[in-house]
Amino acid sequence: MPPKQKKQMFQATLELTAGNAPVVDLGKMLGQTGVNLVEVKKSYDAATAGQRGDVVPVVVTVFEDRSFELRYKTPPTAFLIRKALGDKGSSRPGHESAGVLSRDRLREIAERKLPDLNTADVEAAMRTIAGTARSMGVSVES
């Protein structure tokens, strides 16, 4: 007889600071589920300790027996672009430039985001990342 599937009760995607998830944010989203917030925080912090300082989204699935499962994603594209530039995006995209992103940096970001994108081609991923950069007012080297 196959093992029983746990019944999913709640699922949410949270964008938390890697290695130091604030319990307040966890409490706002997961408090009503009755899951042990301290255990969720410990699991998240342990898994993301190597990326400390980045924003790492996580999909939290809570089951009826109040157990949970965490599925980690890659940092948001806009966050990676801002980190590569060391600056923020433009307050007026299309009018003011926020900087220039080199092809090498664009490739690094695309390779890092590849698991979460709907393509397996690095060139297509680079075009997707370049589109996000342009919408932030960042120019991309040709």
Describe the structure.
The protein folds into two domains: 8-72, Ribosomal protein L11/L12, N-terminal domain (Ribosomal protein L11, N-terminal domain, 2-Layer Sandwich); 77-140, Ribosomal protein L11/L12, C-terminal domain (Arc Repressor Mutant, subunit A). It is an alpha+beta fold and 142 residues long. 38% of the residues lie in helices and 21% in strands. The strands form two sheets. It has a three-stranded antiparallel beta sheet, covered by helices on one side. A two-stranded parallel sheet has the order 4-5. It has helices at 23-30, 37-48, 77-85, 103-113, 122-135; strands at residues 8-17, 55-63, 68-72, 99-101, 138-140.
Features:
3-stranded antiparallel sheet; alpha+beta; elongated; Ribosomal protein L11, N-terminal domain; 2 domains; Arc Repressor Mutant, subunit A; 5 strands; 142 residues
**Looking across the biggest beta sheet, what order are the strands in?**
1-2-3
CATH topology of the largest domain: Ribosomal protein L11, N-terminal domain
DSSP strand count? 5
Q: Mind telling me the CATH superfamily name of the largest domain?
A: Ribosomal protein L11/L12, N-terminal domain
Separate helix tally: 5
Overall CATH architecture of the largest domain? 2-Layer Sandwich
The separation of the N and C termini measures 58 Å
Class by alpha and beta content: alpha+beta
**Major sheet details:** 3 strands, antiparallel
Helix content: 25-40%
Strand content: 15-25%
Mean pLDDT: 87
Instruction: Give the number of domains.
Output: 2
Based on CA atoms alone, the radius of gyration comes out at 18 Å
Basic shape: elongated
